[in-house]
Amino acid sequence: MTPPRALVIFDGECALCNGFVAWLIRHDRHASFLIAGSAGEVGRAALSAAGLEDAIAASTLVVWDGRAYLRSDAVARVAAGLPWPWRSAMLTTVVPRPWRDAVYNVVAARRPRVEAEDPACGVPPRTLVDAWRERLASLADVEALRTATDD
Question: Any idea where the domains of the chain sit in the sequence?
Answer without folding.
Answer: 6-150
